[in-house]
Amino acid sequence: NTNKARLLGLYAAEGSLHKRKGIYRNCVTFTYSSNEINNLAKLTKLLLESEFENVNVSIKLDEINHKCTVSGYASNIYQFFLKYCGEYSYSKKLHQELVFASPEIKKEFILGWLEGDGHIDNNSRITGTTISPSMVSQIRTMLYSIGIHNTLYENPPSNSIINGRNIIGKHNVFRLRINGTNAIDLIKNSEKLSLHGDYKERHLTKFINNYCLHTLLEKKQIDYDGD
Question: What does the alpha-carbon distance between residue 120 and residue 37 come to, in Å, rounded to a whole number?
Answer without folding.
Answer: 19
